[in-house]
Automatic annotation (TrEMBL):
One of its GO terms (biological process) is regulation of gene expression. This is C2H2-type domain-containing protein. GO terms for molecular function: zinc ion binding. Keywords: Metal-binding, Nucleus, Repeat, Zinc, Zinc-finger. Transmembrane segments: none annotated. PANTHER family: GASTRULA ZINC FINGER PROTEIN XLCGF49.1-LIKE-RELATED, PR DOMAIN ZINC FINGER PROTEIN. The keyword DNA repair does not apply. GO terms for cellular component: nucleus. Residues 19-47, 48-71, 77-105, 106-129 form the C2H2-type domain. Signal peptide: none annotated. Coiled coil: none annotated. SMART domains: ZnF_C2H2. It is found in: Nucleus. It comes from Rhodosorus marinus.
Length: 129
């Protein structure tokens, strides 16, 4: 059947080589995550292209944010320090803390690299597995 539990079970029963990066040995619980890891980390595959300036991005959300802040420049909130536009004030506040104040409280225990958001550290840790 096409329900989610059968998808999870399929991935759990997948051969180990489909859940392990053949380049660096990182291990994943879903085949999709293994493929995404190889595309974005090792192949630097950038499938999302800006139609206005041809710049390419790994993630659709990065392209959307690029178009919004660089080309449209119609933002509901702007950074008072650099003028970059954002969709809302909370994104401005996060930008100020991470870019202008350098706040990065999440640190990789393997290489020491620091991140502003826990999610970014979590994604980064995949390169060390």
């Amino acid at each position: 059947s096409g329900d989610r539990t059968s998808i999870v079970r399929t991935d759990a029963d997948a051969p180990e080589d489909e859940l392990t990066c053949q380049i660096c040995g990182a291990q994943f619980t879903r085949k999709h995550d293994t493929r995404r890891h190889v595309r974005t980390v090792h192949l630097q595959q950038r499938n999302f292209k800006c139609e206005m300036c041809n710049r390419q991005f790994i993630h659709r959300t990065h392209l959307r944010d690029h178009i919004y802040s660089v080309h449209i420049k119609v933002a509901l909130a702007k950074c008072p320090e650099c003028g970059k536009g954002f969709k809302n004030q909370s994104k401005v506040n996060r930008h100020i803390l991470s870019v202008h104040k350098g706040e990065r409280k999440y640190q990789c225990t393997q290489c020491g690299r620091r991140f502003f958001q826990r999610w970014d550290l979590k994604k980064h840790m995949e390169v060390h597995l």
